[in-house]
UniProtKB/TrEMBL annotation:
Protein name, per record: RimJ/RimL family protein N-acetyltransferase
PROSITE patterns reported in the protein's UniProt record: GNAT
Secretion signal, residue range per the UniProt entry: none
Origin species: Nonomuraea africana
Gene3D superfamilies in UniProt: 3.40.630.30
Domain of life where this protein originates: Bacteria
Pfam families in alphabetical order: Acetyltransf_3
Domain N-acetyltransferase: 16-179
Amino acid sequence: MNAPLDVPELRAGENHRLRPWSLDDLDVVREASEDAYIPLITSVPSAYTDTEGAAFVRRQWARAAEGVGYSFAIAELATGRAIGQIGLWPGAHGRASVGYWVAPSGRGQGAAAAALLALSSWGLTGLRIARLELHVEPWNTASSRTAERAGFTLEGLLRSWQEVGGERRDMYVYSKIGR
């Protein structure tokens, strides 16, 4: 087992923060489970119950406890309400993967870009990771714009890269490099 990781709180722009998950965040897990896409690409349950929602939150805690990665709730600064998730998953050779989602009620506020910028800055400088990568389906222009606003560079298309909803899908690969 890897050493446990500490999930800190990070400011994400003027209106959001990244923080550890709480069992008080079940409303956003419920909302995300009702989204057509989020449960296909994450461990958010597709059929929500309070038990499944709590299990999702406990999985986020377990990732840090097992040293696998950092999973943050994206929360509104003013209210503390969780509106999404962002995670950083360290790998070999100074690389890490990043992934994020924002529930429908939290979209259009710049939360994903602010969260991605905060997380990538922390990962590159605080954790001294040399390279961050994220993968986006070619049709997902909102996520591509988010990556680019946060300073990620499109490197290319990975054909048949990932299984989503039972079928192989192409993915764009974006990266951000530490300087």
